[in-house]
Specification:
The complex is a heterodimer of chains A (402) and B (112). Chain A is mainly α. Chain A is built from 16 helices and two strands. Chain A has a single domain, classed as Ammonium transporter fold, CATH 1.10.3430. The chains are: A mainly alpha (402), B alpha+beta (112). Chains A and B meet through helix 9, helix 10 and helix 11 of A and strand 3 and strand 4 of B.
């Protein structure tokens, strides 16, 4: 047990917690003013429900003793035997702290997907779906990669959640956009962000929180956490430049929303790689991340799904690029594993398998859960509720009285 | 008595008000409006998708004037509001049947 490591991870857990309210600001600014509170609730209510479910069962399913490489068993239900002694995952911090750190990841991941169904989901359906996908998608995914499950045992590299957090939420987002269908007003071209300064504030806070997310994923305060902080920052910086350059070329002018989206794209892309690649490759991963996510966002217009706030384009595409890039640029000098560039093509193959498995599993199960929730409570708000706005129709309140 | 309704560029409002102040115009009403004419709208871009905004923000000034000062006031509005580009706006002149100053009950020219 180390007091320094414990102190460091406490701070990182707090930073990752902040990312969910930051996401509420980021997403809240992107919707129309009639939906800003409902969009905020799609993040904030999950701090409630996901945290409690994590305590009761989620942690045990994800990080309990392995059952067949697929799922954790029930030995840590309601935090049984999760106390002040170290866990098998981090030798120098109390297992209860490891549980709390991972809890913040679970909350954020479920909230990330909410960008896809914003402005049209019925609130009870959103709560039920979130609870179900935590249990049936997030917990298995976290177990496969980090909880001694089959992907991690196969050698798949995912430092801070490129697959578990970003690809998974991206795949769930795609399923949500498919099953819910487009927003009613989408074709009239009347939908625009109502408060971009709020989005930029949220984006800035996400970047700040990401230092806890990635550096903290070293699970100790040492060389690796310092390295992850640097790769994270440089990838975000390069992501701004990547998005800005390609948007400038494509649309004639660089936008502020593009700059903040590019930073997030760089952050998403570096998440799986932060503790495995050198700083220069990390910068390249961020730069390309900004570019491929720009293309990823445009994809929805081509393919015709209404991923309202571009979860697929940024988290799905950026997470996929990051997972593959980890297989390209991982270096033994950083964390013991080489990628393709250093003469180990097999690592890229493993990463590819993790990409296919994550998308296929998360997308398929999400669709099943969405159909089930629709049958029980009805997924979509009524058309008149959607037109009035979910703030009034689902929550009886209005954000602005000016 | 005439009522002038001038739809102008928001950026020109201060200049117009200052110029009219020197003429002794001591009252006007300002309304923020949105509309389109030959200028049409403009384009906004969010994450690579563009969106055409049909209604451009303008300001509508309403001024009640005596018949004899009408032309002078109009010419001041025209010279200060004009840039020469499409989108300078329009002025509309309406006859007023009567005016009442609520505080005193005065009517007609006395009330202007």
């Amino acid at each position: 047990m180390s007091a320094v490591d414990t102190c460091f991870i406490i701070i990182c857990a707090m930073l990752v917690m902040l990312m969910t309210p930051a996401l509420a600001l980021f997403y809240g600014g992107l919707v129309r003013s009639r939906n800003v509170l409902s969009t905020t609730m799609h993040s904030f209510s999950l701090l409630g429900i996901v945290s409690i479910l994590w305590l009761l069962i989620g942690y045990s399913l994800a990080f309990g003793p392995d059952v067949g490489g697929i799922i954790g068993d029930l030995s840590h239900v309601a935090l049984k035997n999760v106390g002040l002694e170290a866990s098998g995952y981090a030798a120098s911090i109390p297992s209860v702290l490891f549980m709390a750190f991972q809890c913040m990841f679970a909350v954020l991941t479920i909230a990330l997907a909410s960008g896809a169904y914003a402005e049209r989901i019925h609130f009870p359906a959103m709560l039920l779906f979130s609870a179900l996908w935590l249990i049936f998608i997030y917990c298995p995914m976290a177990h496969w990669v980090w909880g001694k499950g089959w992907l991690g045992e196969m050698g798949a590299l995912d430092f801070a959640g490129g697959a578990v957090v970003h690809m998974t939420s991206g795949a769930v987002a795609l399923a949500s956009a498919h099953v819910l269908g487009p927003r009613l007003d989408l074709r009239q071209g009347q939908i625009a962000p109502h408060n971009l300064p709020m989005t930029i504030l949220g984006g800035g806070l996400l970047w700040f929180g990401w230092f806890g997310f990635n550096a903290g994923s070293a699970l100790s305060a040492g060389e690796l956490s310092a390295h992850a902080l640097v790769t994270t920052h440089m990838a975000a910086a390069a992501g701004i430049l990547g998005w800005m350059l390609i948007e400038w070329k494509h649309m004639g002018k660089p936008t502020t929303l593009g700059a903040v989206s590019g930073a997030l794209a760089g952050l998403v892309a570096i998440t799986p790689a932060a503790g495995f690649v050198e700083v220069l490759p990390a910068t390249l991963i961020g730069l390309v991340g900004g570019m491929v996510c720009y293309a990823g966002v445009l994809l929805k217009n081509r393919l015709g799904y209404d991923d309202a706030l571009d979860v697929v384009g940024i988290h799905g595409v950026g997470g996929t690029w990051g997972a593959l890039a980890t297989g390209l640029f991982a270096s033994k000098a950083v964390n013991g594993v080489d990628g393709l560039v250093y003469g180990n093509p097999h690592q890229l193959f493993i990463q590819f398998v993790s990409v296919v498995a994550t998308w296929a599993f998360a997308y398929t199960v999400a669709r099943i859960l969405l159909y089930a929730v629709n049958a029980v409570v009805g997924l979509r708000a009524k058309p008149e509720s959607e037109r009035v706005g979910l703030d009034i129709s689902e929550h009886n309140e209005r954000a602005y009285h000016i | 008595m005439k009522k002038i309704e001038a739809i102008v560029r928001p950026s020109k409002v201060d200049e117009i008000k200052t110029a009219l102040g020197t003429l002794g115009v001591h009252g006007m009403t300002l309304i923020e409006v949105n509309g389109f004419g030959r200028q049409r709208g403009y384009r906004e871009v969010y994450r690579g998708s563009s969106r055409d905004v049909q209604f451009v923000p303008k300001v509508k000034l309403e001024i009640m004037v005596h018949d004899e000062s009408l032309e002078e006031i109009l010419s001041v509005i025209i010279t200060t509001a004009r840039t020469g580009e499409v989108g300078d706006g329009k002025i509309c002149i309406l006859p007023i049947e009567d005016v009442i100053r609520i505080r005193t009950g005065e009517r007609g020219n006395e009330a202007l």
